[in-house]
Every structure is written in C-alpha cells, then in structure tokens.
Amino acid sequence: MFRLFRFLRPYRMYVILGVILIFLQSLASLYLPDLMSNIVDIGVQGNNVPYIMKVGAFMLVVALIGVACSVASSYYTSKAAAGFGKLLRRDIFTQVENFTLHEFDTVGTSSLIVRTNNDVLQVQQFVNMALRMMVMAPLTAIGGIIMAVYTDARLSLIIVVAMPILGLAIYSILGRGMGLFRVVQSKVDVLNRVLREHLTGIRVIRAFDRSDYEIDRFDKANLDLTDTSVRVYQIMAGLMPIMMLVINLSTLAIVWFGAGLINQGQMQIGNMMAFIQYVMQIMFSMMMASMMSFMIPRAQASSARINEVLDLRPEICDPEQPTVPPSEHGYVEFRDVTFHYPGAEEPAVSHISFVAKPGEVTAIIGGTGAGKSTLVNLIPRFYDVAAGAILVDGVDIRELSQKDLRAKIGLVPQKAVLFNGTIADNLRYGRADATDEEMQWAVSVAQASDFIAEMKEGMSSVLAQGGANVSGGQKQRLSIARALVRRPEIYLFDDSFSALDYKTDAKLRAALKTEITNATVLLVAQRVSTVMDADRIVVLDEGRAVGVGTHRELLETCAVYREIVASQLSEEEIA
C-alpha cells in the first residue's frame, strides 16, 4: 500500500505544512492540562481570582491556537489527499488506455470501473486520515505518556496495564477484518457487473420479459455483498466497546488510587485532574489508531487491487527504436499469418497470405466464426500474430510505434460506437481539426446527409450515450463518416454495412469507390452483393484462406465461395 504514497510527492509541501500544524496542535493539547492543574491547585485552592483570570485567558489563547492549527492542518492534508486521488486515477486510466484487449478481458471492465472509482476513493480516504492521525496519534500518545509520568510516576502503572490490553484487542480484530475486506471489494465487482449487464441489456431483458429474473439476480449479488459487509463491520464494531471499557476502567482506577494519594498529601487535586486528562489523551490516541485500523484492511485490499492494474504490463508494447514509416502509403501485406486467442486450443486464423494495395478494395468473406473480424483486429495491433508477419508500407507492424501505425488507419468496427455529444463532436473524434466542409463531405459519402438534415439542429444535434437515439443503420453511417473524416491511408470496414438496406449499401460503396481512390480499403462483409465488385476477395473457412481472387475467378475456383453465393443470390443474379 505504501508504494502508492509516491503519488503524494507533488503535494509534499501541503503534507509538510499539515504535519507542522498537527505538531503545534498536539503541543497545545498537551499544554492545556498543565495549565488547568495550576488553576485548580494555585488559583482555586488559594482563592486567587486574578491568577485564575490570567491563566484562564492564556488557556483560551492556547485553545484557539490549537483550533486554528487543527482547521489549517485539515485543509492542507485534505488538499494533499485529493491531489493524491487525482494523480492515482489519472495513472490508472493511462495504464488502462495502454491495455490490449486481452488485458481488458483478464481484469474485466466492471472490475476496472470499481478499481478506478471505489478502490481509489478507499485509499484516498485512508491517506486523508493517515496524514492527520498517523502524525497526531503518536505525538499525543508519546507526549501524554511523558507528561503523565512527569505528573505522577506511580499512577503511570495504570497505563502500563491498559495499553497492552488495547493493543491486543486492536491486533486481534484487525487480523480478522483484513481478509474480509478483500472479499467485500470482490463482491462489489460482482454487483457492479450485474448492474452493468442489466443497464446495457435492458432492451433484451424487457423483450424476453426477464425483469423478475434480473431482479432476483441483482438481489442475490446485493444480499451477498450485504451479508459480507455486515459480518466484517460486526467484527470491527467490537473494537469501540472494548476501548471505552478500558478507558473508563482506567479513569476509575486513577480516581481510586489518586484519592488515596491526595488523602496522604502526596498528590494535588489539580495534578490528578491533569493526569486523567493525559490518560484520556493517550487512550484517545489509541482510539485514533483503532479508527485507522478500521480503514487499513479495506485500504490495503483496495491498494492491492490498484497495484494489480498498475503492475500489469501490456503484452503489446512499442519497440525501443520504432521504425519511421516509408513514403509508400497504404500497402498492407499478410505473410503466412497465424493467430490464436489467449487460452484457445486452436488458432483463429492459420497461414493467411494476401496483399491489399492502395486504390483497391480487398473484401473478406466467410461463414460465422471463420476469422474475418480477427484479421481486421490484427492490423491495428489489437492483438499480435503468433506466427508470420503483417506488413504496412513494407514494414512489420511490430517495428512501428502504435501511434504511427494507427494514424494510418480508419477503423469502422462491427459494433458501431458513438459517444455522448453532438454529431459534429463524434465526427471530429476521427480528426479534431476537421473543417465543416470536410465533415459535410464525409456524411455525404456515408449516405448520412438526409437523416442529419431532417434533425432539428443538424450537425449540432446531440447524440445520447452509445447513439441510443438513432437507429442501427444511422449509427453505422455516422461511424463510417467518422472514419472518412480522418482521411487515413487504410480503411478497415468490419461488417460495417450489415444494418444498411441494399440500396443504401450500393450507393455507399459506389461513393466510396469514387471518392477514395488513393487509399487501401479492407472490407469485411456477410453479403455477397457487398463484396462482388471488390478488386480482390479473400474467402475464409475455419480460419484458413480457401480462395483469393475476383468474384468471377472465385466462382470458378472456390467451392466455399460458390456455396455462399448460391445461398444468397438467385441463378439469374449469379449469371
């Protein structure tokens, strides 16, 4: 957990100021019982009103200084803790941005959300408390012990008996709570996953009338988290009664033995009152430590989960000395490429070889699970090949930096993803400095002009999260327009026309062929009508390329392609 304290370095001045102020506050709190003792023994017993007023006024000044130091220390430590949380969240987010899809699958999206928010909050709260209490508690305890021994060494034996009892109670309860807090955080992950699945799949749930099932599933996860939380808080709650019992018994023992010393003339009343105050400060410092012990298990569990993310090294990294891409643009070559997903027994694609050239359309077709989307995902290095090589402009993509590689690519994923904001904002996600004219050109090519014009605010119309307020076909066209705005050297269309009607599909492909003349286009599709005009068609079957050629050539040479064509087109259309 203390490894994360490095995020406090930029705020060390706040920490130093906070510690100094806490030190002054502790000195003030330790000085007040001594002043009170003087008032009782000298002022009250001697009926010295001027002395009482003088020392009382001084006590008030010391108390006000202590209050001011307390407020100021809280301000500076809170700023340091808030800055700590900000930097920690930023580093987690930056680390996650570098994850490959495999790392996302390994940790889990729901768990990453919890770790970035809930776990960071737990550690931040611990840091905020630690900056104050881990300084104040030792100072108060050590100072209280010194002053108590100085006041009366014989009564200090009570502290010697009470302190080990408290320490043993804290240790035993802390040990039992540590493991349970880790379990609590894992159950928060489960609850978050169930809730996230419910919210994202609400249409399917309602369509199949499974609301009762989902409520029951949520209740089980919620009850599981509640039961574990109740159990751990029951354990931790036992600490406070034990501490109050020890404190009250200690006070009773001080009064009992102190009264005997006063009767014998060996102790003043004021000294006994001061001794009680010092013991109370010592015990309350132990209470502060117990409050920290209440937070330590959860913060420890959260910090371990955070460190798992920060320590996870992405499988795909940039080379130490990336190759600068040559002047040749958009040339893509697969050389005997084989790839299998982590943990899979069989490769997803095997021994794939073909070339996609600028100014040409290379289509990829095949049955479900043939490996079409896998091929597309290999080009931007979402995954690395197991064997063979993928070359872009004659350079192995593993020798390029990911930034340079992806700057050449405009990807339209199989599932159209739009972000909350205006249509213009979503288009400029492809290129931030895109002009209005360039965006108009992109939506025109993508056949999106008509429905955008029908919207009340046109390009300034706001899209809901995920594009929930537009249809599937409209989302696909906007995704295509976003890639066009980028004007990349390589276009990757991963089954991006599936939600379009045949007329719109044909018009869009015709516009692409006319407008994109210098770029390389790789197009994954299920429809034969979408790929039949391509310059090159790669036919996949069970992860292998069983045919490469034009539509006419494949009809003559590739049985798999003929089966796909026969299943979709009539004999007249084939002819």
Please identify which CATH superfamily of the domain at 2-311 we are dealing with. ABC transporter type 1, transmembrane domain
Rounded to the nearest angstrom, the distance between the terminal CA atoms is 71 Å
Helix content class: 55-70%
Reading side by side through the largest sheet, how are the strands ordered? 6-9-10-3-11-12
Can you name the CATH architecture of the domain at 2-311? Answer: Up-down Bundle
CATH topology of the domain at 2-311: ABC transporter transmembrane region fold
* Structure summary, number of beta strands: 12
Give the overall shape, derived from the CA principal axes.
elongated
* SS content category: alpha/beta
Q: Quote the beta fraction.
A: 5-15%
Largest sheet: number of strands, sense, barrel closure: 6 strands, mixed
Radius of gyration, in Å, reads 35 Å
Overall average pLDDT: 84
Uncertain runs with pLDDT below 50, 5 residues or more? none
CATH first level of the domain at 2-311: which class?
Answer: Mainly Alpha
DSSP helical segment count: 20
